[in-house]
Amino acid sequence: MAPVIGLVFGAGLGALLAKRKGGNRLDMAQYAGAFAILFGLIGLFIAIFMARNAVS
pLDDT by residue (tens digit) across 41-50? Predict the structure, then answer.
């Protein structure tokens, strides 16, 4: 669940950042893609960490 949340949050944040900097649609798409990958990977590492440290 954390990687999906990271993807969505990252894409939104990236698009918003590009729009604030005055970028066009392609700039917004590039920022959204890059931030989605970054935050998705962070979410994946969080999910792995939580799964490995879960008390059974």
Answer: 999 999 999 9
